[in-house]
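Notebook B, p. 112. Complex prediction, attempt 2.
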Amino acid sequence: MSNNVVIVGSVAYDDVETPHGARKDLLGGSATYFSISASRFANARLVGVVGNDFADADRSLLTTHNVDISGMVTDTSGDSFRWGGRYHDNMNDRTTLYTHLNVFERFQPAIPDSYRNEQFVFLGNIDPALQLDVLEQMDGPQFVALDTMNFWIEGPRRTYLDQVLKRVDGLIVNDEEARLLTDGRSILSLGRRLQDLGPRTVIVKRGEHGALLFHGDDIFFVPGYPVEQVIDPTGAGDTFAGGFMGYVARCGDLTLDTMKGAMLCGSIMASFCVEGFGLERLSKLSVTEIKNRCARFEALTRCPSLTL
Amino acid sequence: MSNNVVIVGSVAYDDVETPHGARKDLLGGSATYFSISASRFANARLVGVVGNDFADADRSLLTTHNVDISGMVTDTSGDSFRWGGRYHDNMNDRTTLYTHLNVFERFQPAIPDSYRNEQFVFLGNIDPALQLDVLEQMDGPQFVALDTMNFWIEGPRRTYLDQVLKRVDGLIVNDEEARLLTDGRSILSLGRRLQDLGPRTVIVKRGEHGALLFHGDDIFFVPGYPVEQVIDPTGAGDTFAGGFMGYVARCGDLTLDTMKGAMLCGSIMASFCVEGFGLERLSKLSVTEIKNRCARFEALTRCPSLTL
């Protein structure tokens, strides 16, 4: 694996409650889930900030997955980002119990010199003004995709978001965010209107129902892999993005076949993610498990030729 | 096409309002949508009742699609079943404006002698006691599937529904009906519990998100075909069932490949159905249009082998 993917986002500690139990101080954050997922396909290079509570064991977990954390700075003035959430019975609705930004509130991404020439970049869900600033620090990457959320779409920072959308190649959002960004009754018109905002490649994630890709004039659909038990959905979206970008970086091109394969990798990795609390399933995954699930996925979805 | 499929269900006139307009006196009902859809793959033989308001033109529409209506009786004591509904902006929520059962309230399905030896039967959404009665009138068909609804699942007729479920081979329901019939957190456990109620073959329809098949120990997933514009969703579920059963009857066996192809036919036919009011799109469909959409569907969903 010679290709790298840069991820700029949050590193956090999460307290999570689901119908299957509760866990405290789980290593989380968008950049963490993204990196661990992407690292199965390419080398992930993380840009983020942690506080003085960040555990050596968690640093080791990242580095043993070949995640380059030279861009992860330690701000000793406070604790790491901490988030607490509770999932309800259907696993789709969740209540945020608290959000303590801590050192993440003052996060100013500084791209290390050794990252500036990277070709594949993911701008995690942070202030769009910071996403713009990261773009300025990079030396003309081949493919930059971004994530965002309702807070930036509906709030006063929208003007920065519109600017950064004009400059990126890809957008990876969920159904709800897509509909906040623009309108469109059918999923097809929604996708095209998102492309009109700037990115040539748009992915609309639909949770357990899979995800849709709009890549230039092409469209591709990947179903969600049906899992036996959803234990904890935290990080599934970032894990999808990590699998997607990791596979694109691995292939090193932007062909439709690469994008299709990347959609499958994203869906498969997300399906593993939800099968355990935090990173417990994702971080212990073998290549054989990934390959087997890809093969199973094909059996689940490939239709024989019809007799018409 | 030598194979036939028998459908027992409603024939109705619908008044429909959607964000795209309003139409009155549309030919509708579960047996109608089912028949027109199934008739693309096999000969449909309809069992139902209409009133003295039933138009000759609508009789002709059915017979020109090779739907055998010798089992559709005319009850001159009243009007046909009439339903009025309004769809809201998202096209998923609808308000029933009225339901006039009229002659359908006294419907007692009588299977014509010429239908009794048929091998493929669909029991549309009617009183489960009547579904049981239809089974008694058939001479050991190869594959019987049924549809039902919340009214029968939650009401006092549930005991009849449980009896008929034990005797049928297939169940075709939507997500919500599936969750009313049994529980199961994941879609996989839901499917298995539905199979425990009796049918070896279970299909859970998920609207625009497609449908899942449980066939013995096998599972298969078909996404919803993304349409440009949903004009009127009325009848999409019955159209899915018609495409599914029509293709099974055409193949004449219950192999997994037949079931997979049937899922695709159901999904494709439902996608055409919603593109027009009532039957306007479905009833004017060419074989070429169906084949083209199947090919397009494959391009939308077939993933190349991964480079892992």
